[in-house]
Amino acid sequence: MIRTKINLTEGPVAPAILKMAGGMLFGFVAMSAFNAVDTYFVGQLGAAELAAMSFTFPVVMVIHSVSMGLGIGISSVVSRAIGSKDHNKVQRLTTDGLGLAVLIVLVISLCGLATIRPLFELLGARGAVLDLVQDYMVIWYIGVTFVVVPMSGNNAIRATGDTLTPSVIMIVAVVVNIILDPLLIFGMGPFPRMGIAGAALATVIARFSTLIFSLLILIFREKLILLKRPKIFEVLSSWKEITFIGVPAALVQAINPLSLGIITWLLAQFGNNVVAGFGAASRLEMLIMIIPMSFGSVMSPFTGQNWGAGKIKRIIQGVRFSSLISIIWGVVVFIGILFMAAPIISLFNDNPEIVNAGATYLRIISISYGFFGIMFISTQSFNAMKKPLQAAIITLLRAFIIYIPLAFIGVYFWQEKGIFTATMITNLAAGAIGFFYLRNNLKRKKELS
Questions:
Q1: 1 inside domain
Q2: Which residue, of 27, 183, 192, 350, has the greatest Cβ tally within 10 A?
Q3: Using alpha carbons only, how large is the chain's radius of gyration in Å?
Q4: Would residue 2 count as lying in a domain?
């Protein structure tokens, strides 16, 4: 029998969420540190390398979005199966979900390798910067298996209520990355100087460590992997359940980096230094958002288990509490960014244009971080409730109905500052829409119960 780390359907709501968010926090710190470390060391190579890294960010995030979408699908179905106490189904869904992840990875890798130059030329990369992008992405695509599969496995572990173990796995990857980055990028000791390609190789090796650890946990500790030969109809049934949530979730997750690609294209007209500053700030942004993202991610297993158990009131309480934390954190960050934006960006590269672009972005956007966190809480909850369409509506509204039109208007009147202001307004609107949309859905469900 599978042991559930935390029974999320009983007991006080706030302590349960805080306990899981605490475990999740380490994982988000690790992921953010992973990206920040890469950006820091690549930034020491020069502005061209930092710009190249910034161009890769939207594409890498699209692949991460596919991984996250699949992971959300696995977490949703597994957490609901745990809530309904169907332990055999939990094992079947986890095993088949990882098999699906492997198939998806093969397609991503082959398509990615075949489209590197035309895709990044479309995003605005040119000349030496484009060559640097290719050096990075060839290695990254070859190792993409070590990105996608562990993310899916870690989401299965989180569905049991254990958010600490996946975080520890990610911390191991960060340590490996921190050690390998300077060795491979700058060629220390017996290692050759690989430049930006070294950052990609360090990432692949570090992610490989997460693959090994997550599989060991799933097989030997949690016993979530079935090693016997499955029946084809069982596999197809699992894939149908997972993709019902996972495909819309992946598309939803991919919407944000796709819109980011458009924003990067708009910013490219102002030069590589502006793109580099925006890229450095975007990587730093992931670290800033760790608190709201932790609480949002917790809402997936919390909502899933309580939805499976029919406890709607607990979900409402959880959404309110998590949203309040997100707003408080957003206020704290806004105050800190007003004074610290430029010094922080200068850690990555001290070029005045890069520092100015990155700091300007952070000062404008930071007022909306709390609301962006609420949007994430809302979409995660909808996916766990088996309502991927509602999650998709919120994200589509944010990315294409509000964000992109505002960005085009903003760039016309106020150049790059107009784009940054459009981002801030979009986050405020999306957070408010997500909160009230989710609240109304939960209230209707509660009345019908």
A1: no
A2: 27
A3: 21
A4: no
Token pair for 1: 């029998």
What is the chain's pLDDT, residue by residue, as a tens digit (449 residues)?
444 445 677 888 888 888 888 777 777 777 777 777 888 888 888 888 888 888 887 788 777 777 777 877 787 788 777 766 777 777 888 888 888 888 888 888 888 899 999 988 887 888 888 999 999 999 999 888 887 778 777 777 777 777 778 878 888 888 898 899 999 999 888 888 999 999 999 989 998 888 888 888 888 887 778 777 778 888 888 888 888 877 777 776 677 677 777 888 888 888 888 888 888 888 788 778 888 888 888 888 888 888 877 888 899 999 999 999 999 999 999 999 988 888 988 887 788 888 999 999 999 999 999 999 999 999 888 888 878 788 888 888 888 889 889 999 998 888 889 999 999 999 999 999 999 999 898 888 877 76
- Nearest-5° Cα angle at 327, 302 to 37: 80
Identify the H or E element spanning 123: helix 116-123
CA distance linking residue 171 with residue 164, whole number of Å: 11
Distance, CA of 260 to CA of 250 (rounded, Å): 16
For residue 232, give every residue at least 6 positions away whose Cβ sits within 8 Å of its Cβ, in sequence order, or none: none
Residue with tokens 């991927």: 388
- From 270, 374, 221, 218, select the one nearest 51 (Cα to Cα): 270
d(CA 155, CA 189): 38
In a domain? residue 326:
yes
Per the structure, the complete domain to which residue 106 belongs is given by 13-443
CA 449 – CA 443 distance, rounded (Å): 10
- Give dist(CA 440, CA 378) in Å, integer: 12
User: How many domains in the chain?
Assistant: 1
In a domain? residue 8? no
Handedness of CA 79, 288, 50, 35 (dihedral sign): negative
Q: How far is CA 124 from the centre of its chain?
A: 24
Report the distance separating Cα 412 and Cα 43, nearest Å.
Answer: 30
